[in-house]
Design a protein that fits this description.
Layout (H helix, E strand, L loop, with lengths): L7 H31 L1 H13 L1 H32 L9 H4 L2 H4 L1 H29 L9 H8 L3 H28 L8 H28 L2
Helix pairs in contact: 1-2, 1-3, 1-8, 1-9, 3-6, 6-8, 8-9
């Protein structure tokens, strides 16, 4: 890992791999949460499995946590090093023409998403830790849907989630294709496909999460 992150190219490659892992996780996470809209029992069953399966809890969950931390830390490191490498901004460089707003502000959107993750962990992960390990309460496979549902009773929390998912979509719009570009996946034949998939991904994934939040708020 030290060798991979010792150069700019290596850091970009490592960040791209962590991004791809998180892209897959978002699909799985959205699929599970959509069950709360489709079928209450199915959501409870899936959540109970994810919440108590040793493989998920003690292997996949730590890997996910590491990937999230690594991705954000590496993003900040790359941004700092890029800024140091270009201490003087040339007057002839019109950033609005040469790059998109999102590509120039990935650090800002990333910081906001990181703050949202802190809220999300407070809402759900810390609750699970308290339920299972602090209070040591008896497993209840029927508790997951009501717990999710009541989280979206307050309009301010729904608004925060919606704003965060919109920013996530903007972040993904650039990050999806950038991750493929960083690992060298550039080809006249395949790049347009990657860009098209990235565009739809960055729209549908956030919209799915927004739909879930609004559904639980409206159906209180």
């Amino acid at each position: 890992m030290a060798g991979l992150t010792s150069s700019t190219i290596g850091r970009k490659y490592a960040m791209a791999l962590s991004a791809m892992f998180l892209l897959i996780f978002l699909i799985l996470h959205l699929t599970t949460n959509l069950l709360s809209v489709i079928n209450r029992d199915a959501f409870n069953t899936a959540s109970d499995f994810m919440g108590y399966n040793p493989f998920v809890q003690f292997l996949m969950q730590p890997i996910l946590g590491f990937a999230v931390i690594f991705h954000f830390v590496m993003g900040f490191v790359l941004e700092i090093k890029n800024n140091k490498a270009r201490p003087i901004k040339y007057a002839s460089n019109d950033a609005s023409v040469n790059s998109s707003w999102m590509s120039r502000n990935m650090l800002i959107s990333g910081a906001v998403i990181l703050a949202f993750l802190a809220l999300h962990l407070y809402d759900f992960w810390l609750h699970e830790i308290n339920y299972k390990y602090v209070e040591g309460l008896t497993p209840d496979a029927e508790r997951f849907w009501p717990e999710l549902h009541e989280k979206f009773a307050d309009i301010w929390r729904v608004a925060l989630y919606v704003i965060s998912f919109v920013l996530l979509g903007l972040h993904l719009a650039h990050g999806f294709q950038s991750s493929f570009q960083s690992i060298g996946a550039r080809h006249p034949k395949y790049t347009p496909i990657i860009m098209a998939v990235g565009t739809w991904y960055s729209i549908l994934i956030p919209l799915g999460f927004i739909f879930i939040a609004l559904f639980h708020f409206i159906t209180q």
